[in-house]
Every structure is written in C-alpha cells, then in structure tokens.
Amino acid sequence: MINKVVASPAEAVADIPDGASLAVGGFGLCGIPVTLIDALHSRGTRNLETVSNNCGVDDWGLGILLKDGRIRRTISSYVGENKEFARQYLSGELEVVLTPQGTLAEKLRAGGAGIPAFYTRAGVGTQVSDGGLPQKYDSDGGIAIASAPKEVRTFNGIDYVLEESLTPDFGLVHAWKGDRHGNLVFHATAMNFNPLCAMAGKITIAEVEELVEPGELDPERVHIPGIFVQRVVLAASNEKRIEKRTVSTVPATGTTQAGA
Fold first, then answer.
1. Which domains does the chain have, with CATH numbers?
2. What is the pLDDT of residue 252?
C-alpha cells in the first residue's frame, strides 16, 4: 500500500526549486490550489515558469507569486483580470506565451498521455502559427522576444498547425476529495484544468478538501487515478472567492416600490 499523504503543505512543496516549471489547475478563481501556492510563496521560491489558464488576480492565487516577482514566464490563455500582470508584461518584466484555451488544454492532456505533439486548426493563419506574437517587451516598449513560426501541414485540404505538448516539472492541483493512494475527485466546474495539470506534471501534488481512506471513493467517479499523483495534502482553507460580482439594481419581481 502506497501512502502518498504528506504532513503539511510546506513539506509538499519543499523540493520545488527556483526555476521550476509548474502546471497549476484552476479557471479564474475556481479550483485554484491556493494552499500549495501559499506554501510556495512562504518558501520564497522564485524564477518560476507557470502553465495555467490565467494567473490569478492581484491578491489571490498565482497573483501573490506574480506580485512579488517570483514568476519569470507564464503560458496562459486569459490574463485580463490582473493589473499587476499587465504592468509586468508591458514593462518587460514578464514573458507571456499566449495560447488558445483549447490548445493549452490539449498541450497538457497530450503531455500526460505521452504524446509529444499534435496538429490543430486553432490559430492557423494568425500570429499563433505565423509567429510574431510579443512574448516579452524591453524597457523601451519594443519587442524583445517574439513567438517563432510553427509548422503547418495540410490534411484533406485543411491546414493544421503543429503544437508541442507540455510536461512541466510539477503539477499543482485542487480536488474536492482524495484518498491516500492519490485518487482524486473534483467538484463540478472546479474540475476545469485540474485533471489536465495532474496528468502533465512530472511530479503532481494535490491539495484536497476531504481526505478519505482507500476504497471509500466510488471507482466509477474517480476523475484522476493515483498513478498521476505523487503527493496528497489537506487543503488549509476551502475559501471560495468570486472573481467578479455583479449585483442587479432592478427590484425583484413582486416587490412594491415606495409611492407605487
């Protein structure tokens, strides 16, 4: 019996070195491995490359690593909710590899499945395939690093671009339930990129809201089998934040306004 549970978040991330690449689960603020990110932040790890749909917000998720200058490069799809991210990118402090969302998902899935590359129609005829996307600016606002052109091939009369898969050094994920063998269950939309990051990471660390004993999880409901997970730790907090709250000013149906 392999017990993959570690005693603390600090112990779980203790061997993540400066310069490591990380696949980090979550979408917006949903399903983010906040406990592991906080532990990594407390440890002082820096010069990181992150692979994540987005980079958190200014004070939550990967945003706390970004704020302190711990991330040098990120491969992401959506970065529109973080002002510090925009500032670092435009000032030349951060390298950003913008990647179509579905392509990013498949890069991680393919990496976890042992597939080195694949062809996709997404991005054909744009700078995604033709090259020239600004990945890093210099201090004067010029382009210091631009994306390179990618191979394009035609299949049955349709062009496809070759995309290489991703296998980061570590995967950090958040799950609803997990057992001591590393089998994981995700809750609703918190599944998002978490299973893909768990598959892609060479060493995957899972924080779980609830730790159960082997055999307690219904095998048919396990989303990620323990073969992909090397460490399991209890999440220190199950706080769920809302990325953007919109409140209607229209009175609810059936209410009576004054003077009506």
1. 9-116+166-234 (3.40.1080.10), 120-164 (no CATH)
2. 66
